[in-house]
Amino acid sequence: MDAMDVLRLALTSKVYGAAIETPVSETPSLSARLGNRVLLKREDLQPIFSFKLRGAYNKMAQLTPEERARGVICASAGNHAQGVAFAAQKLGVRSVIVMPATTPEIKVGACRARGAEVVLFGDSFSDAEARAFELQREWGMTFVHPYDDPLVLAGQGTVALELLRQVEVDGPVTVFVPVGGGGLIAGVAGVLKALRPDIRVVGVEPDDSDAMFQSVQAGERVRLDTVGIFVDGVAVKQVGAFTFDLTRRYVDDWVRVNTDEVCAAIKDVFDDTRAVMEPAGALAVAGLKKYVAERGVRGETLVGLTCGANVNFDRLRHVAERAEVGEQREAILAVTIPERPGAYREFIEAIGARAITEFNYRFAPREEAQIFVGVQLARPGQRAELVAGLVGLGYAVADLTEDELAKVHVRHMVGGRAPEATDERVYSFTFPERPGALLEFLTHLHGRWNISLFHYRNHGSAHGRVLAGLQVPAGDEAAFAAFLAGLGYPAVDMTANPAYRLFLT
């Protein structure tokens, strides 16, 4: 396939039997702050609150009568599932959707409400996909791939056809596209490069789920061992063959962003539109902001595709906690102060007029105290000035603003010291978030080594995150390593992490 093939398929796509032509929204606040005209292509306003409806409907609307009679099947825990269910309902086609058992009930219910038959299987997308292929062969149904299908990516390419009518400017235009398996960016880039090769296309990925970027760099499809769990809508270990080939030829540039930057972008979109994006839905805006900051772009037209708004409400507390850090408007610090009367007041005086966003401390019988403090910043770049000022006054300061362990776990545990917990090893674990999963995890974890520390907090995603300490005496290292290898849960050694060392040992 080339750009002209994508254009031809997009122009002959059948999407509007289910999808709508979404508007382009202005962003007065974000535009003023970035010094560019920032527009949002609002795919979050589709009937299923995601662009995925376009590709699914286009594929299914072009099935033969025999294929329609046999029905369709897909594997998905997210927006593709709802797109297939919605399209099937519109077309009167039987649909079976295989989802991991970890899928939140709101998504399962949304598919069932549209008449889909939902099969819950396994703990991961890979488990569900393998089961879907088994059922497809057994029942003779048509598999609707979430991205690696010419008709699916061409359906997504209709977004670009609309953009060309909606954004009429003479100057430079750059379009920022979120990337998971590559269906959206392959379709959009193919159409734009066929009709307007002067429009730049920038792909945006999370820095912990960048399969497409790594594949483009390597010149071949790369399979990631693990993917990040926060921006779950684009958490793909390997991109599609069709989508990779198109993307490597037609995408001009790449930006990778972290969790905090995505959370800040969710807040930015909300401030200008009052709409709440899912993490993947704000990914393009996060990349747009980083692109402007790194390249000094001014006075141009920048378009971000807000691709979805299917977010669990309970995830928003985590988003709110991280947004200020992502906007570089909060510093998270560990500061050593003397353990004596008056030390608090002296430290607050050193902070000056800046607002304190968080302050955690617990008394310990020692000469020095560790405090975990959040400080509001007036502008990006002020964090380094704050740290330098405190160090200049004689305080020992550890900057934890970029420390994931500090922000997810330690900030909720300050003061929990246990000098009796000798030989403690601390690990961060990830496990499937479903009813009974925490008990199952603890059952697997329990063994010959005592659990000396444990912190878990539900973040409303498909995966739970646990910080656990286990007492492993000298000489048990080999047995403990074998135990971790057979545990079945991803584990990362955090024993040397500075936040853990400062506040929990």
TrEMBL record:
Pathway this chain belongs to: Amino-acid biosynthesis; L-isoleucine biosynthesis; 2-oxobutanoate from L-threonine: step 1/1
Domain ACT-like: 331-402, 425-496
PROSITE patterns hit by this protein: ACT_LIKE (PS51672)
CDD domains linked: ACT_ThrD-I_1, ACT_ThrD-I_2, Thr-dehyd
Cofactor(s) of this protein: pyridoxal 5'-phosphate
Pfam families on file: PALP, Thr_dehydrat_C
Enzyme Commission code: 4.3.1.19
Catalytic activity: L-threonine = 2-oxobutanoate + NH4(+)
EC supergroup of this enzyme: lyase
Function: Catalyzes the anaerobic formation of alpha-ketobutyrate and ammonia from threonine in a two-step reaction. The first step involved a dehydration of threonine and a production of enamine intermediates (aminocrotonate), which tautomerizes to its imine form (iminobutyrate). Both intermediates are unstable and short-lived. The second step is the nonenzymatic hydrolysis of the enamine/imine intermediates to form 2-ketobutyrate and free ammonia. In the low water environment of the cell, the second step is accelerated by RidA.
Family: Belongs to the serine/threonine dehydratase family.
Subunit structure: Homotetramer.
UniProt name for this protein: L-threonine dehydratase
Provenance organism: Deinococcus aquaticus
